[in-house]
Design a protein that fits this description.
Blueprint lengths: L1 H18 L5 H8 L4 H8 L6 H5 L9 H20 L7 H4 L1 H19 L21 H6 L3 H7 L6 H6 L11 H23 L2 H29 L19 H9 L3 H8 L12 H22 L5 H27 L5 H7 L2
Helix pairs in contact: 1-16, 5-16, 7-11, 11-12, 12-15, 13-14, 15-16
Length: about 350
């Protein structure tokens, strides 16, 4: 333990101080009652965790939902870059997981545009290009066909997977759901390789649990959605992640073979995820997963032994806080209810 404090003590102290600046439930509740996005912007100026983002906005022109959300996204990249200075060199590839996820999202955005025959347009501004990204975002935004998309991803962890789903028919685009599942599997494979290569002891155990439980529960949610919305259609069971942590392959097969979502939940009763079986359907399990994922990362940040996962857990929690902020901003913009239960969780 002493070595972990020597190696990660400064990093741990920094992220815990940063986490102390998070928004509380009263902040979300107050913002959700505001009349406009501009009111939310002004409120965030006084919040230490987000003031830098909104202060950097050019408010001489119109600032609406899109502009505000993009400014808040830039705050995530600013904090990522700041934390990277405290991360030992050998750990930087693991802590770069937000960059890998951002690359994946940009690739899928480009594929959606191609499928909709949309015109090339710039992707939202980002600073992750400055953080050793292997995806050419400008080329990705400008690509007019799948070959252009492939060229923009050369050197990234996703390029080989994208080659794998390229159609033999000229001009035909790959199936969106299959492509997304393959890229997410590629992401998890990449992270698993780094964990086994770079980590040992308690840190390795925590990381394997963090990613393993994600995979297990995302597979369960995927199966429940298929049973709920596409009963009898087995086309996308192949899109499940080909990894297991606490759900053995035979159990996953049984879940796939179950007659409906109620049968899936019943089968979960004798697994380590029995608590999830008390939820109502796919959305209930998804809410349960989101809560457990947040609490797991919070425990690792607040009470866990200092490690590289201390930084990773903070970045995960900050991303979830950002998503809650986006939910509030869109609630104000469109007059829809905000996610109060999620706000209570984030703002505890």
């Amino acid at each position: 333990m002493m070595s972990s404090y020597m190696r990660y003590g400064a990093l741990s102290a920094k992220v815990r101080a940063m986490y102390g600046k998070r928004l509380r439930f009263s902040d979300f509740e107050h913002m959700a009652a505001m009349p406009s996005e501009q009111s939310v912007l002004e409120y965030l100026r006084g919040q230490p965790g987000w003031t830098a983002a909104v202060s950097a906005l050019d408010t001489t022109g119109y600032v609406g939902r899109v502009e505000l959300e993009e400014a808040l996204r830039q705050q995530l990249w600013k904090e990522y870059r700041g934390l990277s200075h405290f991360v030992p060199k050998g750990d930087k590839l693991l802590v770069a997981f937000p960059v890998r996820l951002a690359e994946l999202e940009d690739i899928m955005t480009a594929l959606r545009r191609l499928k909709a025959a949309g015109h090339a347009k710039p992707l939202p501004a980002s600073r992750y290009e400055q953080l050793e990204s292997k995806v050419d975002r400008k080329a990705l935004a400008a690509c007019a066909d799948y070959d252009g998309l492939l060229a923009a991803t050369v050197g990234s962890i996703y390029h080989e997977a994208l080659l794998h789903v390229r159609s033999n028919t000229a001009g035909e685009l790959p199936d969106y759901t299959t492509t997304e599942a393959l890229l997410r599997s590629t992401y998890f494979s990449h992270m698993y390789r780094l964990i086994h290569k770079s980590c040992a002891g308690e840190t390795k155990k925590v990381l394997l649990r963090a990613f393993g439980e994600q995979v297990d529960l995302l597979n369960v949610i995927h199966i429940l959605r298929l049973k709920t919305y596409f009963p009898g259609d087995g086309q996308y069971y192949s899109a499940l992640f080909p990894f297991n942590y606490r759900l053995r392959p035979e159990k996953v097969k049984a879940l796939c073979d179950a007659g409906d979502s109620a049968a899936v939940l019943a089968l979960l009763q004798d697994t380590p995820y029995a608590a999830a079986a008390q939820a109502q359907g796919a959305s209930g399990v998804e809410d349960w997963y989101r809560r457990e994922f947040y609490l797991f990362n919070k425990r690792q940040l607040v009470t866990g032994e200092p490690s590289l996962y201390t930084a990773m857990s903070y970045l995960t929690l900050k991303e979830m806080e950002f998503k809650m902020l986006v939910n509030v901003i869109e609630s104000v913009k469109y007059g829809a209810p905000y996610d109060e239960s999620f706000a209570r969780l984030i703002g505890e």
